[in-house]
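re the bet — no i am not wrong, look at it urself. input seq straight from the record:
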Amino acid sequence: MPDPLLAVRNVRAGYGEAVVLDDVSFEVAAGQSLAVLGRNGVGKSTLLLTIMGFTNLVRGSLVWRGEEIGHLAPHQRPRRGLGWVAQEREIFASLSVEENLTVVSRPGRWNLAAVFELFPRLAERRQVRGHHLSGGEQQMLAIARTLMTNPSLLLLDEPLEGLAPIIVEELTAAIRHMPGDSTLILVEQHADIALALTEHVIVLERGRIVHRGRSRDTLRDPALLDRYLGLTLSDSPHASG
Protein backbone atom coordinates (compact mmCIF):
# COMPACT_ATOMS: atom_id res chain seq x y z
CA MET A 1 0.00 0.00 0.00
CA PRO A 2 1.23 3.55 -0.69
CA ASP A 3 2.31 5.67 2.26
CA PRO A 4 -0.42 7.93 3.70
CA LEU A 5 -0.34 11.61 2.88
CA LEU A 6 -0.61 12.43 6.58
CA ALA A 7 0.01 10.09 9.52
CA VAL A 8 -0.79 11.25 13.05
CA ARG A 9 0.85 8.80 15.41
CA ASN A 10 0.32 8.56 19.18
CA VAL A 11 -0.01 12.32 19.48
CA ARG A 12 -0.24 13.91 22.90
CA ALA A 13 -0.61 17.68 22.66
CA GLY A 14 -2.13 20.74 24.28
CA TYR A 15 -1.37 24.22 25.52
CA GLY A 16 1.40 24.81 28.03
CA GLU A 17 1.04 22.15 30.72
CA ALA A 18 -2.55 21.37 29.79
CA VAL A 19 -3.00 18.21 27.72
CA VAL A 20 -5.98 18.21 25.33
CA LEU A 21 -5.16 15.34 22.94
CA ASP A 22 -3.95 12.01 24.29
CA ASP A 23 -2.61 9.13 22.17
CA VAL A 24 -4.39 10.18 18.96
CA SER A 25 -3.50 8.17 15.85
CA PHE A 26 -4.99 8.12 12.36
CA GLU A 27 -3.96 8.33 8.72
CA VAL A 28 -5.28 10.21 5.70
CA ALA A 29 -4.45 9.01 2.22
CA ALA A 30 -4.34 11.25 -0.83
CA GLY A 31 -7.88 11.78 -2.12
CA GLN A 32 -9.55 10.81 1.18
CA SER A 33 -11.99 12.93 3.15
CA LEU A 34 -12.21 12.67 6.94
CA ALA A 35 -14.79 14.12 9.35
CA VAL A 36 -13.68 14.86 12.91
CA LEU A 37 -16.67 14.85 15.24
CA GLY A 38 -17.27 15.19 18.97
CA ARG A 39 -18.94 17.35 21.55
CA ASN A 40 -17.66 20.85 22.31
CA GLY A 41 -14.31 20.97 24.04
CA VAL A 42 -13.10 17.45 23.21
CA GLY A 43 -10.11 18.56 21.13
CA LYS A 44 -11.35 18.77 17.54
CA SER A 45 -9.97 22.22 16.78
CA THR A 46 -6.88 21.45 18.85
CA LEU A 47 -6.22 18.54 16.51
CA LEU A 48 -6.10 20.85 13.49
CA LEU A 49 -4.02 23.38 15.41
CA THR A 50 -1.59 20.60 16.28
CA ILE A 51 -1.28 19.54 12.65
CA MET A 52 -0.51 23.17 11.80
CA GLY A 53 2.02 23.58 14.63
CA PHE A 54 0.19 25.90 17.03
CA THR A 55 0.13 23.64 20.11
CA ASN A 56 2.65 22.00 22.39
CA LEU A 57 3.38 18.56 20.89
CA VAL A 58 4.33 16.57 23.99
CA ARG A 59 4.68 13.17 22.39
CA GLY A 60 4.08 11.38 19.11
CA SER A 61 4.73 12.29 15.51
CA LEU A 62 3.20 14.06 12.56
CA VAL A 63 4.40 12.52 9.32
CA TRP A 64 3.63 14.38 6.09
CA ARG A 65 4.53 12.62 2.86
CA GLY A 66 7.01 10.50 4.77
CA GLU A 67 8.64 13.51 6.50
CA GLU A 68 8.39 14.22 10.21
CA ILE A 69 7.00 17.76 10.49
CA GLY A 70 6.32 18.00 14.22
CA HIS A 71 9.36 20.23 14.63
CA LEU A 72 8.44 22.64 11.83
CA ALA A 73 7.24 26.16 12.61
CA PRO A 74 3.62 26.96 11.67
CA HIS A 75 4.62 29.16 8.72
CA GLN A 76 6.63 26.31 7.20
CA ARG A 77 3.74 23.86 7.02
CA PRO A 78 1.65 25.61 4.36
CA ARG A 79 4.78 25.57 2.19
CA ARG A 80 4.70 21.78 2.45
CA GLY A 81 1.12 21.73 1.11
CA LEU A 82 -1.05 21.97 4.22
CA GLY A 83 -3.98 24.36 3.85
CA TRP A 84 -5.87 25.49 6.96
CA VAL A 85 -9.08 27.51 7.21
CA ALA A 86 -9.37 28.72 10.80
CA GLN A 87 -12.64 29.36 12.63
CA GLU A 88 -11.76 33.06 12.77
CA ARG A 89 -11.55 33.26 8.92
CA GLU A 90 -8.76 35.87 9.11
CA ILE A 91 -9.28 37.43 5.69
CA PHE A 92 -7.54 40.67 4.74
CA ALA A 93 -10.30 43.13 5.60
CA SER A 94 -8.88 46.09 3.67
CA LEU A 95 -8.32 44.13 0.44
CA SER A 96 -10.89 43.30 -2.20
CA VAL A 97 -12.07 39.75 -2.75
CA GLU A 98 -9.85 39.45 -5.81
CA GLU A 99 -6.84 40.91 -4.01
CA ASN A 100 -7.36 38.50 -1.08
CA LEU A 101 -7.16 35.65 -3.56
CA THR A 102 -4.31 36.76 -5.77
CA VAL A 103 -1.98 37.82 -2.96
CA VAL A 104 -1.61 34.20 -1.77
CA SER A 105 -1.91 32.37 -5.09
CA ARG A 106 0.49 29.59 -6.04
CA PRO A 107 0.62 27.60 -9.28
CA GLY A 108 -1.90 24.80 -9.60
CA ARG A 109 -5.42 23.96 -10.64
CA TRP A 110 -6.97 26.43 -8.20
CA ASN A 111 -6.88 29.86 -9.81
CA LEU A 112 -9.30 32.78 -9.94
CA ALA A 113 -11.49 31.16 -12.56
CA ALA A 114 -11.70 27.90 -10.60
CA VAL A 115 -12.57 29.44 -7.24
CA PHE A 116 -15.08 31.82 -8.81
CA GLU A 117 -16.74 28.83 -10.45
CA LEU A 118 -16.88 27.10 -7.06
CA PHE A 119 -18.14 30.26 -5.32
CA PRO A 120 -20.19 32.32 -7.83
CA ARG A 121 -21.13 34.74 -5.05
CA LEU A 122 -17.46 35.73 -4.75
CA ALA A 123 -17.25 36.37 -8.47
CA GLU A 124 -20.12 38.83 -8.12
CA ARG A 125 -18.31 40.53 -5.21
CA ARG A 126 -14.78 40.38 -6.59
CA GLN A 127 -14.13 44.13 -6.18
CA VAL A 128 -15.72 44.41 -2.72
CA ARG A 129 -13.39 44.83 0.27
CA GLY A 130 -13.32 42.12 2.88
CA HIS A 131 -14.86 44.17 5.68
CA HIS A 132 -17.94 44.83 3.52
CA LEU A 133 -18.70 41.13 3.07
CA SER A 134 -21.27 39.23 5.10
CA GLY A 135 -20.11 36.53 7.50
CA GLY A 136 -21.00 33.84 5.01
CA GLU A 137 -19.18 35.59 2.19
CA GLN A 138 -16.13 35.98 4.41
CA GLN A 139 -16.19 32.24 5.07
CA MET A 140 -16.39 31.53 1.35
CA LEU A 141 -13.46 33.88 0.82
CA ALA A 142 -11.43 32.21 3.57
CA ILE A 143 -11.90 28.80 1.93
CA ALA A 144 -11.26 30.16 -1.58
CA ARG A 145 -8.13 31.95 -0.42
CA THR A 146 -6.72 28.75 1.06
CA LEU A 147 -7.55 26.87 -2.14
CA MET A 148 -5.55 29.48 -4.06
CA THR A 149 -2.44 28.22 -2.27
CA ASN A 150 -3.17 24.87 -3.99
CA PRO A 151 -2.81 22.73 -0.87
CA SER A 152 -2.48 18.96 -1.00
CA LEU A 153 -4.59 18.71 2.17
CA LEU A 154 -7.38 21.12 3.17
CA LEU A 155 -8.21 21.48 6.87
CA LEU A 156 -11.59 23.09 7.57
CA ASP A 157 -12.37 24.11 11.15
CA GLU A 158 -16.12 24.53 11.71
CA PRO A 159 -16.78 26.26 8.37
CA LEU A 160 -20.56 26.35 8.89
CA GLU A 161 -20.56 27.81 12.40
CA GLY A 162 -23.03 30.65 12.92
CA LEU A 163 -24.09 30.91 9.28
CA ALA A 164 -27.59 31.36 7.87
CA PRO A 165 -29.18 28.19 6.41
CA ILE A 166 -28.97 29.45 2.81
CA ILE A 167 -25.22 30.09 3.22
CA VAL A 168 -24.78 26.67 4.83
CA GLU A 169 -26.38 25.16 1.73
CA GLU A 170 -24.10 27.12 -0.60
CA LEU A 171 -20.95 26.16 1.31
CA THR A 172 -22.03 22.54 1.57
CA ALA A 173 -22.62 22.44 -2.18
CA ALA A 174 -19.21 23.98 -2.82
CA ILE A 175 -17.41 21.42 -0.65
CA ARG A 176 -19.34 18.63 -2.31
CA HIS A 177 -18.32 19.87 -5.76
CA MET A 178 -14.61 20.01 -5.06
CA PRO A 179 -12.69 17.62 -7.33
CA GLY A 180 -12.96 13.99 -6.32
CA ASP A 181 -9.25 13.66 -5.68
CA SER A 182 -9.23 16.48 -3.12
CA THR A 183 -7.98 15.54 0.36
CA LEU A 184 -9.96 17.02 3.23
CA ILE A 185 -10.19 16.98 7.03
CA LEU A 186 -13.44 18.56 8.19
CA VAL A 187 -14.17 19.56 11.79
CA GLU A 188 -17.86 20.38 12.07
CA GLN A 189 -20.63 20.53 14.68
CA HIS A 190 -23.26 19.74 12.04
CA ALA A 191 -22.55 16.00 12.21
CA ASP A 192 -25.14 15.02 9.62
CA ILE A 193 -23.65 17.41 7.06
CA ALA A 194 -20.07 16.44 7.87
CA LEU A 195 -20.85 12.74 7.48
CA ALA A 196 -22.63 13.35 4.18
CA LEU A 197 -19.59 15.22 2.82
CA THR A 198 -16.87 12.73 3.82
CA GLU A 199 -15.86 9.10 3.37
CA HIS A 200 -14.35 8.43 6.79
CA VAL A 201 -14.88 9.67 10.34
CA ILE A 202 -13.23 9.75 13.73
CA VAL A 203 -15.05 10.77 16.91
CA LEU A 204 -13.17 12.36 19.79
CA GLU A 205 -14.11 12.22 23.44
CA ARG A 206 -11.90 13.71 26.16
CA GLY A 207 -9.05 14.04 23.72
CA ARG A 208 -9.07 10.42 22.55
CA ILE A 209 -10.51 8.70 19.49
CA VAL A 210 -13.49 6.63 20.63
CA HIS A 211 -14.87 5.72 17.20
CA ARG A 212 -13.52 5.42 13.69
CA GLY A 213 -15.23 4.13 10.60
CA ARG A 214 -16.92 4.97 7.34
CA SER A 215 -19.04 8.10 7.40
CA ARG A 216 -21.95 6.41 5.64
CA ASP A 217 -22.13 3.64 8.24
CA THR A 218 -21.82 6.11 11.12
CA LEU A 219 -24.62 8.24 9.70
CA ARG A 220 -26.86 5.17 9.80
CA ASP A 221 -26.08 4.43 13.46
CA PRO A 222 -28.30 6.73 15.55
CA ALA A 223 -27.36 4.99 18.79
CA LEU A 224 -23.68 5.72 18.24
CA LEU A 225 -24.38 9.34 17.32
CA ASP A 226 -26.53 9.78 20.40
CA ARG A 227 -23.94 8.16 22.66
CA TYR A 228 -20.96 10.24 21.54
CA LEU A 229 -22.56 13.42 20.22
CA GLY A 230 -25.87 13.64 22.01
CA LEU A 231 -27.38 13.88 18.57
CA THR A 232 -30.64 12.61 17.18
CA LEU A 233 -30.68 13.20 13.45
CA SER A 234 -33.66 15.02 12.08
CA ASP A 235 -35.35 14.33 8.78
CA SER A 236 -33.32 17.11 7.18
CA PRO A 237 -32.11 16.66 3.61
CA HIS A 238 -28.56 16.49 4.95
CA ALA A 239 -29.27 13.41 7.02
CA SER A 240 -29.93 11.18 4.03
CA GLY A 241 -26.97 12.15 1.86
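see?? Strands lie at 6-15, 18-28, 33-37, 56-64, 67-68, 82-85, 153-157, 184-187, 200-205, 208-214. told u. also The longest helix spans residues 135-147. so pay up
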